[in-house]
Amino acid sequence: MKQYILSLILLSLVFSCSKKATPPAPVEPLPAPEQLAWQEMEYYAFVHFNMNTFTDMEWGYGDEPASSFNPTELDTRQWARVAKEAGMKGIILTAKHHDGFSLWPTAYSEHSVKNSPWKNGEGDVVAELAEACKEYGLKMGIYLSPWDRNHPQYGQPEYVTYYRNQVKELLSNYGDIFEFWVDGANGGDGYYGGANETRNVDRTTYYDWDSTFALVKSLQPGIIIFSDGGPGTRWVGNENGFAGETNWSSFRKEQFAPGVGPYQESQYGHEDGKYWVPAEADVSIRPGWYYHAKEDDQVKSLSHLLDIYYKSVGRNANLLLNLPVDRRGLVHENDVAALMELRKTLDQTFETNLALKAEASASAERGTGFQASQINDASNDTYWSAPDGVVQANLTLSFDEPITFNRLMLQEYIALGQRVKSFEVWVKAGEEYVQVDTQTTIGYKRLLRLDDITTDWVQIRITDAKAVPTISNVGLYLAGTEPEVRSE
Ligand code: FUL
Asked: What is the pLDDT confidence band of residue 4, given thresholds at 50, 70 and 90?
């Protein structure tokens, strides 16, 4: 009997130790499942290719004849192959820009590829790209300019109906679309069917965006809507590809509409924002969004592209890098070379995570399932967390042999909300403990560029958080010597 009771006690002890502790309560706002999937894409292409490619313009006036659109070797499979090899996860195409020319044979206007000489008016760029993306395992997104300098009824209610009819075509006929891109630039002078005048609209009310966004979501429930204020992802507030060092995915979306709002704040997000609207950093690989032969020698350098990468993906934003497809209908050789150089450098840097061979420990642990060992198990789905009420904690990586690193990666388990407000990085140098960096937010991913450090002890000190921190990954890497721009 005694033995029986003893084994019962033992069993219950083993059970209580291995029992998973309860996860921390979520901190609002939270990402929707499609926002989580979108965040993991990290890096994808914008393609500006349309009438402007052939008129050498950035903003066509709207009076360009459809006959001007005539690519000689259009090959969307080349775009997809390049994007894939560059490590991008999707392509967003300017299906219609401000000049109003549609890259698909829309039933609602004559101003489209169907009246161009390309493929004798039988072509459909959107369909060709959808096919190519499918073949290469990429997601496709659509940019549809709200401003239309060609349309005679722009500024009147009829145009909004036209815009929605185009939304229906694009989101019904081309398979899954991962992102719908709404530009903030709208209203001004234009051709407008021959009126040649200035038409300004009330950007907050004219389009009735709530109804259009509801339509978009009804056609593609998993879609992410981009605009100045989201709701799926927000403009980062500049076209340099830089997010703020402090970058909250929480956002005061109610203060924004496409083209309206305090966009200078968008690179930082709002700590007290009630909506989850993570930032997307859009930037072109050349000075212009569209192809101009005179910019063939102005493709951004490796150092510039690396700087952009670390200031977007490395600051809790997704990177939307624009490729101005040329008049042939191809991504230009110089742009391809730059993209591949960037890929190679990033692959070399992030190939080996030195943190994986460390012993991880924490100053506080929540319990089974949330131990420090979760931060270097190479999984995004597991995380370390602290007991309720603990917002300051240290995470330590100890190594048997000293390692040399110069890049640090941190990730929060954002499914339960973004929490960390500030943290420090410490290392042991000889007998001394040295602080090598102090920063604010982390979010989905934070990358820090540091000088080379050789040490057998690295500590992340979380100094403040909205609630108990949840850290899913800590990575340490050694980048080779890179030509670096540390602008800003
Ligand atoms: C801006 C537009 O006016 C540019 O032409 C470009 O499309 C860029 C991505 O957004 O607002």
From this structure: low
**Domain span holding position 237:** 33-349
84 and 153 in a single domain? The answer is: yes
Number of Cβ within 10 Å of residue 434's Cβ equals 12
CATH code (residue 150): 3.20.20.80
Are residues 289 and 426 part of one domain?
Answer: no
Ligand 1 pocket, residue 268 CB under 6 Å: no
Report whether 441 contacts 418 (CB < 8 A): yes
Q: Per the domain annotation, does 70 fall within a domain?
A: yes
Q: CA neighbours within 13 Å on the CB side: how many for 477?
A: 22
Please write the tens of the pLDDT for every residue from 127-158: 999 999 999 999 999 999 999 999 999 999 99
d(CA 365, CA 371): 6
Residue 357: closest CA among 458, 453, 479: 458
Scanning 351-422, the segments in alpha helix (DSSP H) are none
Distance (angstroms) between ligand 1 centre and the Cα of 460 equals: 40
Atom of ligand 1 nearest to the CA of 97: 7
d(CA 146, CA 155): 11
Q: How many domains does the chain have?
A: 2
What is the whole-number distance in angstroms between the Cα of residue 336 and the centre of ligand 1? 22
Cα(31)–Cα(273) distance, integer angstroms: 13
What length is written for the chain?
488
pTM: 0.95
Q: Distance, CA 260 to ligand 1 centroid (Å)?
A: 15
Q: CB within 8 A of 374, min separation 6: which ones?
A: 382, 383, 384, 472
Question: How does residue 438 score in pLDDT terms, banded at 50, 70 and 90?
Answer: very high
Span from the CA of 255 to the centroid of ligand 1 (angstroms): 21
Whether 282 lines ligand 1, by a CB cut-off of 6 Å, is: yes
